[in-house]
Design brief:
Rossmann fold, 7-stranded mixed sheet, 8 helices, 7 strands
Length: about 240
């Protein structure tokens, strides 16, 4: 796969992304922690914190991968977590981790599409998606589904990579993403998957445009918070 072959919208993109993540599933956790120098754990904690979870809440974690966001949420409050992901192989690993932690009564996972969630309206108290909104076929369709399945007053937290706004950090970030990260990932897993990462970040709406998208789908009190010099951002909204 070359840069010119990456797709950034539509059903074909979803198929491409599904295949990509199925292929790197066994190395996904290690690469996340290694390539981010472990900072991804802090980012996920901050995303969970933005949900203001309380005992008894039910959380939907979309693009749950191997379950790290759900596990972080379960440490905050006595809640139930439903994880959804497009990748079968990711979910198989998540199930193993859930069973190993003895959390099968609190954490379930299901294979599904963020743009067509298999849940009834007004089901969840909170919804999170970490580094997955870039990978959907149509962002507005996914946001519409998020709004639909949240209860009135339900909170949304979206954690996603962003372009740092400072000149120096921005150049350093782009050099790492474009040149260092794909090479490191290629030595241990799939170079193409981690070449897609900077490509997808560049095609993602900027902060202002993305907040406008959230508002256009009905979310209130929309805001964002930059983390680690703007390398990543948390977007919040309330139904």
């Amino acid at each position: 796969m070359t840069d010119s072959e990456f797709l950034h919208s539509g059903d074909e993109k979803k198929t491409q992304v599904q295949s990509m993540f199925d292929g790197i599933a066994n190395r996904y956790d290690f690469l996340n922690h290694f390539l981010s120098l472990g900072v991804d754990l802090y980012w996920r904690k901050q995303s969970v914190k933005a949900l203001d979870l309380e005992d008894g809440h039910v959380l939907l974690d979309v693009a749950c991968g191997t379950g790290d966001q759900g596990f972080a949420a379960l440490k905050v409050a006595d809640i139930e977590v439903m994880g959804l992901d497009f990748s079968f192989n990711m979910l198989e690993l998540a199930k193993k981790k859930i069973d190993k932690r003895g959390l099968s009564q609190k954490f379930e996972v299901v294979q599904g599409d963020a743009e067509s969630l298999p849940f009834q309206d007004n089901t969840f108290d909170a919804l999170s998606i970490s580094y997955g909104i870039r990978n959907v076929g149509t962002i507005s369709a996914a946001l519409s589904e998020f709004y639909r399945v949240l209860k009135p007053g339900g909170r949304l937290s979206i954690l996603e990579f962003s372009e740092p706004q400072g000149w120096f950090v921005g150049r350093l970030y782009r050099f790492y993403f474009d040149h260092i990260l794909p090479k490191l990932a290629g030595l241990m897993s799939s170079k193409s998957a981690y070449t897609y990462l900077p490509e997808s970040v560049r095609h993602f709406p900027d902060r202002s445009d993305f907040k406008d998208l959230l508002s256009s789908e009905g979310f209130q009190h929309v805001s964002h918070r930059d983390l680690t010099f703007g390398i990543t951002a948390i977007y919040r909204g309330v139904k």
